[in-house]
Structures are given as structure tokens and as C-alpha cells.
Amino acid sequence: LTAHEAVYFIFGATGDLARRKLFPALYSLYREGKLGERFAVVGVARRPRTETQFRDDLHQSIQEFCRYKPGEAGEWTAFAEHFSYHSLDIGNVDGFRELKSLTERLETRFDIPGNRLFYLALAPELFGTVSHNLRDGGMLESPGWHRLVIEKPFGYDYPSAEKLNEEICRVFREDEVFRIDHYLGKEMVQNIQMIRFANAFFEPLWNNKHIANVQITLSETVGVEERGAYYNKSGALRDMVQNHMLQMLTMIAMEPPSRLDPEDVRDEKVKVLRSVRKFASPDEVRKNIVRGQYSKGTVRDKELKGYREEDSVDPESVTETFFAARVFVDNFRWAGVPFYVRTGKRLPVKSTEIVVEFKNVPGNVLFARRQDLLPNLLVIRVNPMEGIYIKINAKRPGNETTIQPVAMEFCQSCQIGINTPEAYERLIYDAVHGDHTYFTRWDELAAAWQLIDPIAAAWREHAIEPALYPAGSWGPAQTEKLLHEDGFHWWPVN
Ligand code: BG6
After folding, report:
1. Cβ neighbour number for residue 64 with a 10 Å cutoff
2. How far apart are CA 11 and CA 8, in angstroms?
């Protein structure tokens, strides 16, 4: 494989994403031999920075955030040698021409065949400008491949996403574009396919005859932190639901693809999104969706601010920091099965879990009216613990015939010596190898926005404001009601 012989351009190289995720990911890939030696990384940002300063930043970021620590001096220098910095005003094409000469020198020096990967860790408003200037500055004229990796938010709604996409598509083909959703890079999200399609005992039961409901929780303990300005415009709906939550839902609900090829997998995911029932009226939105915002609260004797008191947040903000919904996938497999999703900031735990609740055995004479008979569960633990467990019913040891639920567990994060790669490592690696499986295709993104827009419109046009919940709680009381109405409850998250 020679695909990884490339120059990686990190636009926004002095920003948070580069520091926390991208540099550490590149270092881990390097340490595992996945980058080889024929590569170069060019950090691009507006701020002037000397090569030495840039490499110092790099060292610090790896020291702080990488699962490998910078090794002994020789090895570190060898890695850092591959890094250069180029200060650039991205609105000015001349800088791109200079970047072109720098790139050609690096390609000669490291014997790289002209492959170029442009990672835009930038505000999306700049994607169009950068794409055009890459082309006009001659950066796309090398003999190898050219790929664009971009981060969310991809627009604010369907029309803005479409506009953004058109701008990018004037320069890059769809197969050259890699839209990151870092949840798709998570080990256990990718594992959903294996669990479902490689096991004789799940797939035959994976439908409305045997599954009572599915619960997807993505809870965070952090508040909005220093991202108030961004978050206040986006809210949980655009920050988490439009992307991460819907991605997990599609992975659970999709039909088995005919092959595990990227396009086959993505075709199936688009079909799920198209089958999700739209919230057609404000009443449906009110009935099926909970919109919440954290107010002040106390967690372990610590006073936490309410959302409206956070920095850069409008004191009258009606932005939601919590979202819960009852969603239906109207196809043959899932008709009638509710998918409950919830996500929020300032909740009691940091945890992402997917619970598949199976229907009970027939209420026959054997176990009729038994209070101790709980449903079987399959729980996929995504984050921060990784693993899977199933809850089954067994006999409690002793003379009485009491049933007790027991867990059969595979705890991936407990296995000694498993140091699972970070989402960004896997995604950068895939992008460089041209594998689109875990990236969002345009039609997938479009379908996701088409589900989100009517919700946002109903909130906006019918003044549906968020219900307050104290920081450190599980969201507004209505969240429990959603499930109680259907005779279910949220299974506790670990
Ligand atoms: C990001 C959101 O996409 O995902 C953040 O913008 C959120 O608001 C983060 O905190 C959660 O990711 P993870 O991997 O920490 O669960």
C-alpha cells in the first residue's frame, strides 16, 4: 500500500481540534508504522509561527493528548522533521501559490508521489474560499490524488448545507470529499455492524417482532464551556442530533448491505434516514420531542451555573442544551418500534450507550404475572467505556424459583493491553486510504437535515421554548413521560 504517501495539510493548525485530536492522531499512526516515512504535514493558519514554535506546539499537544508519549529524542526528531508551518491569509490566492512551492519541495524531499490531503479544521464559512483558492493557487495540479476532509457543522439547515456543498463541489468531486462525524470513528459504533451481521443470534431477532424499543443516550457532564458563541446558535439539535445521534440510529436500523463496501453501506444508511417519520406538525413535535435547557444546580457540593449565565450566552437564550425524542422508522422491519434518543449537557454522567430492549417471552402459564421477569437487553457501550453486554434471565440459586437477571459481558476497555485507537486516528487513516465507509455522503447529510428542519421550524414558529432542568439531572421530567406513555422506562446508563 502506498496510499499513505501524502502531504497532509492541516488548515487551522493553531486551533483546538488540531491540538487535541489531529496532531495526537498523526503521532499514534506514526508510532504504529501506519504513516511510514514518506509523508509530510504542513500546518496552515493565519498566525505567524516559526518552524521551531510550531514543533514545540506539536510536542506539547502530543504530550498532553496522545495515547503515546513522545519517545526518546531521536525518534521524536525523526517525526517532527516531517512537519512544516505555513502562515497564510486564506482569502488571498498568492499565499496558496507559495504553499504550492513549499509542497513541491516537501514532495521531492520525502519522495511523495503528489497525493494531497486537505484537512479543514476551520469554520465552515471558509470551506468554499479555501477550496477555490486551492484550485486557483495550483494546489490540485499534482499527479496523485486530492482529498478534502471537513468537519461539521455542515450548514445550519438544509438550504445552507446545500449551498455549502455546491461551493465545495465546484472544486472537488463527491468521492474526493470526506465529511467527518467523529462518532462514526468510534470503535463501538463501527462494531455495531459486526455485532449485528456476524452473529447468528442477533440478526434473526432484529425486527419489530422481537424488539420492543431502542434507547440511545449520549449524555455529557460538561456544560457549554468556552463555546457559548457557537453553541448558542446551534443547540443540541444541530450540535449532536443532526449528526452523531442520527448516525448511531442508522447503524442500528439499517438493512444488511449486500457487501461491506462503502457505497453499499451508505446506501442502506440513506434508506433509513428516508424512512424516519418526519414530525409534520407542531403538535407532533410537542408530543414526541422534549426540548430542555440546564438551569443552575449543585453537583457534588459544587454550584454549577445555568446555561443563561454562561460566558458568551445571551441571558435570554432559548437554545436547547437537551434533546429527547421518540422516533419511528417507518419500514417493514421497524414498523411500530419506538427509538428513544436523548442527549444533553450537564447531565449526571458522561456516557454513550445504546440499549436494545427485546420483547418479553409470551406471558404463558410458566411465567404469567411474574414481577421478576425483566426483558432481555443488549447494551452497546460506546463511550467512555467500550463493550457489550446482554441481560438474560436465569434462576436465582436456591430452592425457590426466583428469576434473576444476569449480565453476560464483554468489556473491551477492561482488556489489558487494549489501547484502542482514537476516532480521529481511524478516520484520518481511512481518508488517506480513500475509504468512505465511515464518512457522511451528501445525500445522507441532506436527508438528515430534512428531518431536522421541521423540528427547528416548529420550535421557532410556535414559540416552543426549552423546559429548564437543574444542572446534574437527567433533563426535564417530560423525558420520562415519553417512555411511560408507551409502558417503558429509560434503562439506567452506566
Ligand atoms: C462534538 C460536539 O461533536 O461532540 C460537542 O460539538 C460534544 O458539543 C462532542 O461535546 C462529544 O464528543 P465525545 O466524543 O466527547 O462524546
Report:
1. 12
2. 10
343: helix, coil or strand? Answer: strand
CB 354 within 8 A of CB 248: yes
C-alpha cell at 453: 428542519
Catalytic residue numbers, as ranges: 244
pLDDT score at 14: 95
Q: Is the peptide bond before 375 cis (omega within 30 degrees of 0)?
A: no
Using alpha carbons, select from 278, 314, 280, 291 the residue that is nearest to residue 237.
291
Its sign, for the CA torsion 78, 34, 435, 382, is negative
d(CA 465, CA 462): 9
CA 463 to chain centre: 29
The grid coordinates listed for 73 are 529524542
Q: Which residues of the chain have pLDDT under 50?
A: 1
Alpha-carbon distance 55 to 85, whole Å?
A: 9
Supply the pLDDT for residue 368.
Answer: 62
pLDDT reported for residue 415: 80
The whole-model pTM stands at: 0.95
Closest CA to 208 of 92, 381, 8, 356: 356
Query: How many of the other CB atoms lie within 10 Å of CB of 235?
Result: 22
H or E, element range at 381: strand 377-383
168 is in an annotated binding site: no
The predicted complex's ipTM stands at 0.99
Pocket test for ligand 1, best of 231, 242, 244 (most atoms within 8 A of CB): 244
pLDDT digits (tens, 9 = 90+) for 219-274: 999 999 888 889 999 999 999 999 999 999 999 999 999 998 999 999 999 999 99
What lies within 8 Å, CB to CB, of 433 at 6+ separation is: 1, 3, 4
Q: Which residues approach ligand 1 with their CB closer than 6 A?
A: 220, 239, 383
